[in-house]
Amino acid sequence: MRLRFGEVKMVAMRIDACHQGLGAFKVDEFTMEADQVRMLSSGDFGVRHRPGYELPLGRPVNIFNIEEWAKAQKQREYVPQEPLRAALSITYGQESSCELHYQNPGGLEGVLGQISLDFAAGTVWEQEGCLSTTFPGQVIFLKEGKAKLWVGGDYVEIDGGHCEHTTLSLRGTAPYPQGLRVLITFRSRADLRLKIRGGRGPRLLPLKPGT
Fold it and tell me: Longest Cα pair distance anywhere in the chain, in angstroms?
């Protein structure tokens, strides 16, 4: 998902979870109505015996002997786990706004997850009396409430901060060194709503010396 309002650019949105490297939200089903898009992720990446675990055999196996290792793998008992199934709906409203509703009601409980909102460099962060420049590679956790990201007189407001862990980078997630990453974190089984809207206000004065 990409979004632009005026000079503010959200270049990507990702949803990931730390589930044996198989927690990324992958669109398997897609439906569209007049003002809403709904996507489903089955959590099935076609990886054999994942998510799940092979149990030990209770005897030594020579891992340097390929044939012996392959034979032993077939003999190990397998304990499957439920994939991380999830749904995301995006409802478009008036005045350059949308609401995201993320749910993963089933599967393993307590899996760490995150919604990443990546913004192009050059934004100014405003939240609860704080006004701050941002820098490429910076990560900000929106723990609660709302925040605005400004470029000049344009802003994008994020409403619905949530924080259930402060892990900066989950397994399998790609860094974003080019700009600012805003994180909304959760644990499965999650039910989150996030509102994003664009607006305009008085043009901010440059916060950097010499600009």
Answer: 71
Ranges of each domain in the chain: 3-47+83-200
Predicted TM-score (pTM) of the model is 0.87
CB neighbour list of residue 183: distance below 8 Å, 6 or more residues apart: 114, 115, 116, 117, 139, 140, 141, 142, 168
Beta-strand runs (E) in the chain: 3-5, 8-17, 29-32, 36-41, 52-54, 78-80, 86-92, 97-103, 112-119, 124-127, 130-133, 139-141, 144-151, 154-162, 180-187, 191-200
| Per-residue model confidence as pLDDT tens digits over 55-111 | 999 999 998 999 999 999 889 998 988 889 999 999 998 778 999 999 998 778 899
